From TrEMBL:
It comes from Sphaerisporangium rubeum. One of its GO terms (biological process) is riboflavin biosynthetic process. GO terms for molecular function: 5-amino-6-(5-phosphoribosylamino)uracil reductase activity. This is Dihydrofolate reductase. It comes from the Bacteria. Residues 3-172 form the Bacterial bifunctional deaminase-reductase C-terminal domain. Gene3D superfamilies: Dihydrofolate Reductase, subunit A. InterPro entries: DHFR-like_dom_sf (IPR024072), RibDG_C (IPR002734).
Amino acid sequence: MGKVVMYSSVSVDGFIADENDQPGPLFDWLSSGDVPLDDSGALKVSKPSYDYTRAYWDQIAVTIVGRHVFDLTDGWDGKPPSGIDHVVVVSHRPMPENWDPEAPFHFVDGVEAAVAKAQELAGDRMVEVAAGDVGGQVLAAGLIDEVRMDVVPVVFGSGKRYFGPVDAQHLLEDPDVAIQGNRVLHLRYQVRR
């Protein structure tokens, strides 16, 4: 089975969005360079960010998100973001009415079921878990192998926490990657078992 990785861009004080679910400048690094990150040409980053991020994106087969993120993004119009094969949505509610049942989105109840479904779909490839409430629940359940964060030089003061509702201590190993890009610091930690 592939790794299960918790990921997001994050403020230096640990928030992935403000109180109104707005990312503010958290994604500015995705337009702060001159190297196209994907075929659209809309995302341009520094060379160090490209090397790190492109290699990471190419490994992801499935992303796990909560229903809140799914609703905020309107389910990416049924097309998983960044070329990902499948999205697993943790939700106590059924898929939305008029949702295309052929879209590669899978609705499950609970984080353990989400990780199991994602790993089944991913095989040996990576499963990405969006940071926030669902990511924190997956971490608390002991199902995260690695934590990745793109730390952006901004202080929010309050908002949606990177680790969501985690209220217990979880030890990480020393960072095994620390790469400085334009307006971002890419960090990677293995979860201590």
